[in-house]
UniProtKB/TrEMBL annotation:
Name of the featured protein: Uncharacterized protein
Protein's organism: marine metagenome
Length: 44
């Protein structure tokens, strides 16, 4: 039973880490996409 709880905690921690990373990285990605689309529009 104890192992089960530990594994749940580990999974939860990993999930939170990934979630925080994605919310941190997402604005960056949006900026890059914006720049790329602006370049495409500018090139036309």
């Amino acid at each position: 039973m104890k192992n089960y709880i530990i594994s749940l905690l580990v999974i939860l921690t990993l999930f939170l880490l990934v979630y925080n990373l994605s919310s941190f990285v997402e604005p960056e990605i949006k900026d890059v996409k914006k720049v790329i689309t602006e370049k495409q529009i500018f090139d036309k």
